Automatic annotation (TrEMBL):
Cofactor(s) in the UniProt record: FMN
Family: Belongs to the dus family.
Function per UniProt: Catalyzes the synthesis of 5,6-dihydrouridine (D), a modified base found in the D-loop of most tRNAs, via the reduction of the C5-C6 double bond in target uridines.
Upper taxonomic lineage: Bacteria, Pseudomonadati, Pseudomonadota, Alphaproteobacteria, Hyphomicrobiales
Enzyme nomenclature, EC number: 1.3.1.-
Keyword field: Flavoprotein, FMN, NADP, Nucleotide-binding, Oxidoreductase, RNA-binding, tRNA processing, tRNA-binding
GO MF term set: flavin adenine dinucleotide binding; tRNA binding; tRNA dihydrouridine synthase activity
EC main group: oxidoreductase
Entry binding sites for FMN: Q72, K141, H171, G226, R227
Protein name as it appears in the record: tRNA-dihydrouridine synthase
Key word tRNA-binding present: yes
Superkingdom field: Bacteria
Length: 332
């Protein structure tokens, strides 16, 4: 088994960028891929909304500039997932990932995301419908189970693979834990023992040491980095290089360099999503980039509350210019 492949798609490394709602926009994925992330995955796309051709939902399908474009879909109806997968493939997706791990109440309440872990038979039917609809590889992301009593990941993974899934990702928490407590990488090993396809471990992986520990504890082939990459799109690439014994990518080493990256990200978002949505989406990213530096609170507030694109870009420049030359709060 090639540890850096998903079906017939070769990956750039063993550390991937997680699909994060409101975070894994096209510019963020593009930047992470540039730094060498093994794979970047779109934020979750609701299959019924994509089938309904909602404009904001279709924005999430963007994959320009990506050597490997992976789209994550969520849903609970086979027809919707199959049709959404066809749309994503037509938009250039090389891999389709099915979300069976999202713990959000609005998703679980619609019997999608991690709610599917309570019904592995139905979940497998969704995989089968998706696989039959497209020619690209289909993967599944899940949690350990819905709760500690029902740790259904091994069964669901087996059924998903039997239905045609070519790789599995397991977040080391249950749905009921959401993002609290500590990810249990050892508990992922039961899924490793259940399937032979490539397995990715996710949860609390924030650097190379935690990546190595997660791989050792879980028996997984790859790791997925989520929230730790917010404001640090270079992180999956750095970890990938370390795991594969390659030279690390050059990463920002000063406030000025981080500021240049923050501005580039903001400009790409404005181009991608337009002024109104772009401004809203960029605030979370700008705040995360700013967390690396020491800058006056007033400048930070100005960058996060600007109401016009030109004003926002000027505020970002001013924020990082004021911090340039200072010691970074977090090592790059």
């Amino acid at each position: 088994m090639n540890e850096c492949a998903v079906g017939n798609v070769t990956l750039a490394g063993r550390a991937t960028l997680a699909p994060m709602s409101g975070v894994s926009d096209w510019p963020f994925r593009q930047l992470a891929a540039r730094y060498g992330a093994g794979l970047v995955i779109s934020e979750m796309v609701a299959s019924d909304r994509l089938v309904a051709r909602e404009a904001e939902t279709r924005l999430k399908l963007e994959g320009r500039g990506l050597d490997v474009h992976c789209v994550q879909l969520a849903g609970c109806r086979p027809h919707d997932l199959a049709e959404a997968a066809r749309i994503a493939e037509a938009a250039g997706a090389h891999i389709i990932d099915i979300n069976m791990g999202c713990p959000a109440k609005r998703v679980v309440g619609g019997w999608a995301g991690s709610a599917l872990m309570r019904d592995p038979v139905h979940a497998a039917s969704l995989v089968a419908a998706t696989v039959s609809a497209v020619s690209v590889p289909v993967t599944v992301k899940m949690r350990l189970g819905y709760d500690r009593v029902t740790l259904s990941a091994p069964e669901l993974a087996r059924r998903a693979v039997d239905a045609g899934a070519v790789a599995i990702t397991v977040h080391g928490r249950t749905r009921c834990q959401r993002y609290t407590g500590t990810a249990d990488w050892r508990a992922i090993r039961a899924t490793r023992e259940a399937v032979t396809v490539p397995l990715t471990a996710n949860g609390d992986i924030v650097d190379t040491p935690t990546a190595r520990a997660a791989l050792a504890a879980s028996g997984a082939d790859m790791v997925m980095i989520g929230r730790a990459a917010l404001g640090a799109p270079w992180l999956p690439g750095v970890v990938s290089a370390d795991l594969d014994g390659r030279r690390r990518p050059a990463v920002p080493r000063s406030a000025g360099e981080i500021g240049a990256l923050a501005r580039e990200h903001a400009e790409l978002l404005l181009e991608h999503a337009g002024p109104a949505l772009g401004l809203r989406l960029m605030r979370k990213h700008t705040a995360a980039y700013a967390d690396h530096v020491a800058a006056p609170a007033a400048l930070r507030k100005a960058a996060l509350t600007a109401e016009a694109p030109a004003e926002a870009l000027r505020a970002i420049d001013a924020l990082f210019a004021a911090a340039d030359g200072a010691t970074l709060k977090a090592a790059a």
